[in-house]
Amino acid sequence: MIRTYRSFIAAGAAALLMSTSPLAAFDTQASAAFVLDETTGTVLLAKNADTPLPPASMSKLMTLYIAFEAVRDGRLRLEEELPVSAHANSFGGSTLFLRQGERVSVEDLIRGIIVLSGNDACVVLAEALSPDGTEAGFARMMTQRAQQMGMTNSVFKNSSGWPADGHVMSMRDLTLLAQRIIEDFPEFYPMFAEEEFLFDEAESSNRFNRNPLLTLGIGADGLKTGHTQEAGYGLVGSAKQGDRRVIFTITGLDTAQARAQESEAIVNWAFRQFAERTVTRAGAVIAEADVWMGASASVGLMAKEDVTLLLPNTPGTSVTAEVVYTGPIEAPIAEGRQLAELIISPEGLPEHRIPLYAASAVPASGFVARMMSVSQVLLGRLQTPAEETM
Length: 390
Hints:
The chain has 390 residues and is α+β, with helices and mostly antiparallel strands. The protein has 2 domains: 3-19 and 278-382, D-Ala-D-Ala carboxypeptidase, C-terminal domain (Peptidoglycan synthesis regulatory factor (PBP3), Domain 2); 32-272, Beta-lactamase (3-Layer(aba) Sandwich), CATH 3.40.710.10. The chain is 27% helix and 27% strand. It has 9 helices and 16 strands. A 7-stranded mixed β-sheet has the order 1-13-15-16-11-10-14, with no helix packed on it. The protein has a 5-stranded antiparallel β-sheet with strand order 3-2-8-7-6, with helices on both faces. A two-stranded antiparallel ribbon has the order 4-5. A hairpin with a 5-residue loop joins strand 10 and strand 11. Helix 1 packs across helix 4, helix 3 crosses helix 4 and helix 4 (119-129) crosses helix 5. The two termini are 15 Å apart. The relative contact order is 0.15. Mean pLDDT is 88; it is low at 8-23.
């Protein structure tokens, strides 16, 4: 009879703990949030994560991403100087105090956006890269590129995040964008950790990075704050401790102080409550599957690679693991053939499904042994009472 087998792993692997105490989810005060363990790809928190919301200056990350691409492919040079238009000069809020007609290097414009959140610097780059020379044309290009990158809940109306109807991003999209910047442009990413950038001696007070995490010694190295009356206070942040990196986005906080406190709390929670653990090593037999008409009655199951997962780090939290396969598995079985799955279910985290393979070959049994097996099955059926076979 073919059936699905579910075998719970008793923990010779001390990495997998069994208990009934649930892991408490982080109770964020943000109206929307998304927290990603970038190292393992594990989503730690999602609150209204796919809701399109006004992103304020956090959407400047998309302008920066397109500028980085342009530098990399040669359409822009860091030392190249771009002109400041009347439109760029018309912006208030966070600016570099650029003057119409002056020329500014691409590198200064990029740093001015990253460190000082310059609205005017965004427009200068936008007009230089726009297909039609306008900021509106660049915004359409931003939206198209975002869709190509998988950011399906993002629409841009300008380059800076200045309040505009329909200018929206989701927290998941912003986190994905931050991840792409970190992974695609390691040559530029260190700029996000710069605590100050003095562009204009006459405006020396306007030189400090607004990211409240950079000076706390918790591994924070980016990326972008945002604030408008409609959006509230938000932050796209990232921190690295050891080999782990966490990226997160929050929005809708009432004050800059609340944003700073919430961001620090998220970083501490993400690193303290979760840890990477090696569940099994490549080639180690972790379970056995029953074999039908084989030279052996069972076959060992193994993973082909080391399996390291992000799991709750709090004593008493619940992690279950089971091996699932359809069997008994008919011989012959080739070594390395996929036969089963290891399903690991950490409390409060996504389920992990790891393929398991035959650790050794199992040839078919000889003719006599095969006939004996078939005879035993038939005999068992004949001996079963009629009412049990209905």
